[in-house]
């Protein structure tokens, strides 16, 4: 089965759950900026949770199905239609040959994930089908999709449409733990970082969210040598305005690391778009672990329920 891209929107790319184990070689993990929505769309479509799907940033995608197929989408609210009929997120749908699927521009959230039954069939690179946009590797020819691209999908067992589940609520906060360099900030700077309502800047991308607001005084902090960083790390450059690293984050950096987004909220970080406001909420290690466990349990319940439905 193939589909043809009619309009790609600002940025649509093939993504899965990324490349593990290559950070020592300078290769970012990459993958979906919102891994929870990717997993959810895949499970509803009848795929393995980590199958390759399309990540649609800020909407604007239009495509044509070149054969009958089953699909699901999840993530940001975008006003999605199939031949003009409005669709809902986290529902399973069937499309006829020639049907046109359109994503409006993002209303709430930044990224949506389109999962086709059978997954997106592109060659794995370093164990992943995700697109490394900066390096030009993986995905579809190592780049974001363009009008006229024809995308191949894998084989899938027949699935009945009509299945639906509920999405998680994003909210306007990110739960964080103190990072390695938290003690280097003075108490006033620590309070300001946590209490300031930060705004998502226009320079944000898949590498990281650049936040704007009242700058934090970092004059008293020591300069640092380069060190390891990863998605979820909150960097504080000399400007005093934080950067929240996302899926395509570099593997090393030299800025202060005062905070780290907890694993259970990485998906939330991928759903803020320019102009949105966020606040950091400090939690302890026990709360962070409990949140991760609850999220895994929720996904497992979803997987089991959908697997039972498919029998």
UniProtKB/TrEMBL annotation:
InterPro entries: CT_A_B, Cyclophilin-like_dom_sf, PxpC. Pfam families: CT_A_B. The lineage of its organism: Bacteria, Pseudomonadati, Pseudomonadota, Betaproteobacteria, Neisseriales. This is Biotin-dependent carboxyltransferase family protein. It comes from Jeongeupia naejangsanensis. SMART domains: AHS2 (SM00797). Residues 24-298 form the Carboxyltransferase domain. PANTHER family: 5-OXOPROLINASE SUBUNIT C. Keywords: ATP-binding, Hydrolase, Nucleotide-binding.
């Amino acid at each position: 089965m193939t589909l043809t891209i009619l309009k790609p929107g600002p940025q649509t790319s093939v993504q899965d759950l990324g490349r593990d184990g290559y950070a020592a070689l300078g290769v970012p993990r990459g993958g979906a900026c919102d891994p929870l929505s990717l997993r959810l769309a895949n499970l509803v479509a009848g795929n393995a949770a980590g199958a390759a799907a399309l990540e649609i940033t800020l909407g604007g995608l239009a495509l044509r199905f070149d054969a009958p197929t089953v699909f699901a989408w999840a993530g940001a609210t975008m006003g999605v239609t199939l031949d003009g009929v409005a669709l809902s997120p986290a529902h399973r749908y069937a499309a006829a040959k020639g049907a046109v699927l359109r994503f409006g521009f993002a209303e709430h959230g930044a990224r949506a994930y389109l999962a086709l039954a059978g997954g997106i069939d592109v060659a794995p690179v370093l164990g992943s089908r995700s697109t490394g946009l900066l390096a030009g590797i993986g995905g579809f020819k190592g780049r974001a999709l363009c009008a006229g691209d024809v995308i191949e999908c894998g084989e899938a067992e027949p699935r009945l449409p009509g299945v639906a589940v509920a999405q998680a609520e994003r909210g306007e906060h990110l739960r964080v733990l103190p990072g390695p360099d938290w003690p280097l900030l003075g108490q006033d700077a620590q309070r300001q970082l946590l209490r300031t309502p930060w705004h998502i800047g226009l320079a944000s991308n898949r590498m990281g969210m650049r936040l704007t607001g009242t700058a934090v005084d970092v004059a008293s902090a020591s300069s640092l040598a380069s060190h390891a960083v990863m998605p979820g790390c909150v960097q504080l450059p000399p400007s005093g305005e934080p950067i929240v690293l996302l899926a395509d984050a570099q593997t090393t950096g030299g800025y202060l690391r005062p905070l780290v987004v907890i694993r259970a909220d990485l998906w939330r970080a991928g759903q803020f778009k320019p102009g949105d406001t966020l606040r950091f909420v400090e939690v302890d290690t026990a709360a962070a672990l409990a949140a991760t466990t609850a999220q895994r349990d929720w996904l497992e319940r979803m997987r089991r329920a959908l697997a039972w439905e498919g029998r």
